[in-house]
C-alpha cells in the first residue's frame, strides 16, 4: 500500500511539471507573437498613395479616388538604406501589376523601313540642241513638249548663210590645190559652227553646196523644250530643243543620316510603285549624295533603275524599302527605354532584387528592338513592363536623384 501511494504521488508531481513546462512554452509563444504584431503595428506610416498616381499623397487609408484600388501605405523604414544602388518594391505590388523583365542580348539589329521616294529624270541623259549659227527656220516638224523622239528624228529644217559660205571656200580650196591643212581648217570651222557631221561628210563625198540642213534629235528621249515656228529667225544662242532621256530613271529618297553606315549594296533596296503594285524594279546602281539636309538631318540616296518600257514617269510616287542589318550590338526591347528628352535610361534588376536605374545610349531602333553602346552588359535584366510602378516608387523614394548624385560623384573622382 505504501508503494502504491508513492507511485501515485510521483504521477501527480510529473503531471504538474509537464503542465508547467507547456504553460511556460505557450506563454512565450504568445508573448513573442504579440511582440511581433506590436512591432509591425508600430511601423510609422508617412502617407498613403495610389501607385498609379504617386504624386498625390493622403493622410489616411481608404479607396483611391483615381482607380478602383486601395491606397498603399508608405512606411518610414522603407528604402532607408544609405546606398544609392536602387529601390525595393513590395513583391505583392510587383506581382499584381505584372512587372516583367528581359535579358540584354547581343546580336544584329534587323533594320527594315519603308521610305517615301519619287521618280525623276536621269540628268546624265539631258541634251540641249542648238544651231550655233544665225539663220532662219525653213520647216518645223510636228513635235511639241512631251513628245517621245528617237535618236535621229528630224526636229527642224534651217538655212545658215555662214555654212553656205564655208562650203564654197572648201570647194574652192579643193579645186585650186589648197594645202591639206587649209582644207582641214575649213571643215573644222564648219564643225565648230554647228554644221551636222552627216552634212559635212555629204559635202566631202558629193562636192555639192547644201543650203538647207536638218537638225535631228541626238538621243532617245522626251522633248522638254521646243518653241520654234516656221519662218522664224534663229540666233546662234537660241535653243532649238531640250531632250531628256527616259531610260534609266532616278528614284530618290531621304534616309536618316544615322543609318548611312548600314547602306552597303543594292540588294538592300526594294522599289515599289503604287501605279504598278504587281511589278518589281531592280536597282542597277545607287549612291549617297554628299550633303546632309540641315533641317531634317537626312541624306539623299539616289537609285538608278532600268526603264526600258518607260513605265516609270518622272514625278511618280514610289517607296523605297530598306532591308539591312547592323554589326553585332547589345540589344534590348524598345519598351524598356525611358526617354526623358534629355537622357535615356532603363530600370535593371540586380542580383539582390533591387530595381536600379541606369543611363544608356540608344544607337538605333527597329522592329521594337533598340541597339545600345553603353550602360549595360550582356545578360543584365531590364524591366520591360510595369515601368510606371518603378518610376512612381523611384520618384517617391528619390532613388533616381540619389543615383544621379552618385554618378556625378564618380565622374568627379575619375576626373582626378
Question: What would you say about this model in short?
Answer:
The protein is of the alpha+beta class. 27% of the residues lie in helices and 36% in strands. The model is unreliable at 1-40 and 80-84 (pLDDT under 50).
Write the layout of secondary structure elements.
Elements: H1 2-41, E1 45-50, E2 53-58, E3 72-75, H2 91-96, E4 100-103, E5 105-120, E6 126-130, E7 135-140, E8 148-149, E9 154-159, H3 161-175, H4 180-192, H5 197-206, E10 213-216, E11 221-225, E12 233-234, E13 239-244, E14 249-256, E15 269-272, E16 283-293, E17 298-305, E18 317-333, E19 338-339, E20 344-349, E21 355-366, E22 369-374, E23 381-385, H6 387-397, H7 399-415
Antiparallel strand pairs: 1-2, 1-3, 4-23, 5-14, 5-18, 6-13, 7-9, 7-12, 8-11, 9-10, 11-13, 14-17, 15-18, 16-17, 18-22, 19-20, 20-21, 20-23, 21-22
Helix pairs in contact: 3-4
Domain Heavy metal binding: 47-74
GO cellular component, one term: outer membrane-bounded periplasmic space
Keywords: Ion transport, Signal, Transport
